[in-house]
Amino acid sequence: MLGILEIAKHRVVAAHVVIIRRLAQQGGGTFEEEFLRLARLAQLVQAKRAVNEARGLLRIGRAQRVADAHRVAPPPAAHVDEQPHLEHFLAGLVGGRQLIELAQGLARHLQLDVTLRREQRPFDRHTPKCARLRRLKSRIPFRISHFAFVITIEAMERRWILPGAVDAAIARDLARDHGLPRFVADILLSGGLADGEAVERFLQPRLRALSDPNLLPAMPAAVARLDAALRRHERIVLYGDYDVDGVASLALLHRVLTAYGARVECFLPSRGGEGYGLSAAGVERCCELHAPDLLVAVDCGTNSTAEIAALRTRGIDVIVLDHHEPDADLPNCAALVNPKLGDGAFAYLCSVGVVFKVAHALLKAAPLPGFDLREVLDLVALATVCDLVPLVGENRILVRAGLEQMAGTRWPGLAALLAIAGVTPPIRASDVGFRLGPRINAAGRLGTAQAALQLLLTNDPAEAARLAADLDLQNRERQTVERAVVLEVEAWVEAHFDATRHATIVAGARDWHQGVLGIVASRISRRHHRPALIVGFDETGQGKGSGRSIEGLSLVEALRRCEAHLGNFGGHEMAAGLNVHEDAFAEFRAAFETAARALLTDEMLVPSLRLDAEVPLESFGFDLLEAQQMLEPFGNGNRQPLLFARAISPTAEPRVLKEKHLRLAFAGGHRQPVSAIFFNGAEQPLPRPPWDVAFHLERNEYNGRVEAQMQVVAIRSAA
After folding, report:
1. What is the pLDDT of residue 671?
2. How far apart are CA 24 and CA 3, in angstroms?
3. Would you place residue 570 in the very low, low, confident or very high pLDDT band (cuts 50, 70, 90)?
């Protein structure tokens, strides 16, 4: 007479929570038969879930963490081998080191009553699954008790880091002088903005505050060489990269140079056949197609010393406009404009920012009547947001103005992209990063980025609509490929990654599509809070990979420390690409782990919630949302404020949406309820109220009505 066990996996950033419930007593049949029946039922009920999340899982009720399975004492000998094959069955069904250890304990310990405290608790009204339980009872072919025996593995929870104290008197004065709510004043002070003029420059960024473009390294030389090419009617070829920054930079520079009447061609390498940057294969094909007099390398070229030397032997001049980290050995070219050289005052710029500066400097040197540089600011905002560079300094000015320009863009391609992505004003940086960028990137990830470039270059609305639709379809195909690779990478992570021992995740396999590895690395890094490198190998063993980092670790610096195992690499602090052979992969993985360990502290490896300000719900309203908009655009270097409210309770039972989200309501001021949404909240056990709630303040538009809404990030028992 064996109980039916539910095994549920719930990922909490860097660890798994494994919940095992004894739901009911069911006679007859073996354990495997009963478990598989439960698995089949779960798949029917949760058919929309990914298989790796749904198989064998029927999540019902409220779980309490009561023990750390790694600290379970050895059971009495009498219980050993009661079910000797159980551990293999469970491990084979779900997988993972933690589940194997847990299954070993269960195999010896079917009664779960030695060192694990057994608790019997009724479901309560704050259990998000209760309503779902009642709906499903008639479909479940066996009786379910309203009580559950619960054990879990202790998870690595995110630390709540409260904001530091600010001077209350200064905060009050700042709020009064600038007409701000207190939480905005607190955030500004925490960011070091106390001076009135500095606060005004931050809240009201102006284009007139942009600095002289000739302050960038080698800018005068680049402008002089471009001006000479324009006067001599030379054949100019723009050689770019296949991501958003590369494509948008080419489109911007092409529009500027053709406005001068120049003969300009654009070239994008093939990701699969030629790889990133000025590769030998890419340069050869470019020269065969276009025979340039002047080649302008955009978003690449800083470290392409040999390739640029080869171009010079052909009599081809080269200008490099790039932002990637430079090596000690720089190429000999007509001009290398890279903000990371010199004093680094503009090191935050990405390539589209560099190209904008070049265009600005060129227009100052050779004015072009009728050309308004402000009309390309939407391209600047598009690439700056998508390239994840810090939205500080002049990036903040360019993106704020660019998002406003985007709402009334004159470029048919960008207008068509906004339409097919369903983006309407006011346009936010998150719309660009999550809805526009992936569609532009999709072309270069699965094939050639030529369609994305043509979308940004065309002046024909009909062609723009067709290209935008094609990119939208390619993006859906990219999502399918990405999901398949994510499933395989996650299986590898479960089998090999231990959050208590490993500082990095470095996974590689044959046939992982190289076009989606960057996105997959980003997902894995966020989910496990680790620097992640994902590599795909071809049939010859040659591997290309992408990496994403966490705060505190420069990927380029870590890769530099293990470059002996690499073919080549490049990138910046948070993202990088690399080439590595399959034979050297194991040694590289060990070397990268060692390098990361030297650069990271233990504290950096613990996921955290850095709270920015407390907002009492009595003051919650649309005016707070309007005030928060003054801090935008949000992104890297200027993240959206993470707010929190203390000791609050829901006014009604949480409502489950789409079987995984929660709709909540809290008491606000003047008896007005505060609406909240908790995405994926139904998959997590909620503590008993009152709660401390961490949330983002968001705009919610429904049926023509716009209101401020809490977007819950985390809930804990009130401290």
Report:
1. 65
2. 6
3. confident
Structure tokens at 35: 């478990």
Q: Sort strands 705-717 and 691-702 into parallel, antiparallel or unpaired.
A: antiparallel
User: Residue 306 in contact with residue 315, Cβ under 8 Å?
Assistant: no
Domain hosting 560: range is 497-607
Q: How many residues does the chain have?
A: 719
Distance of CA 637 to the CA centre of its chain: 14
Query: Helices 244-259 and 450-457 sit at what angle, rounded to 10 degrees?
Result: 40
Yes or no: say if 5 and 22 are a contact pair by the CB < 8 Å rule.
yes
Domain count, the chain: 4
For the chain, the 3-state helix, strand and coil shares in percent, each to the nearest 5, are 45, 20, 35
Answer whether residue 182 is part of any domain. no
3-state class of 630 per DSSP?
coil
Dihedrals φ, ψ of 419, to 5°? -65, -45
CA 33 to chain centre: 41
Say if residues 63 and 21 touch (Cβ distance below 8 Å): yes
Angle at which helix 412-421 crosses helix 450-457, to 10 degrees, equals 110
Element (H, E) at 318: strand 317-321
pTM of the shown model:
0.76
Q: Prior bond to 461 cis, omega within 30?
A: no
**Residues 42-71: tens digit of each pLDDT:** 333 333 333 333 333 322 222 222 222 223
> What is the C-alpha to C-alpha distance for residues 21 and 26, in angstroms, rounded to an integer?
14
In angstroms, rounded to a whole number, what is the distance separating the alpha carbons of residues 19 and 22? 10
CATH number for the domain spanning 350: value is: 3.90.1640.30
Of 418, 424, 415, the closest CA to residue 462 belongs to: 415
The rounded distance, in Å, linking the Cα atoms of 174 and 179 is 8
| pLDDT 10s digits, 517-559 | 999 999 999 999 999 999 999 999 999 999 999 988 999 999 9
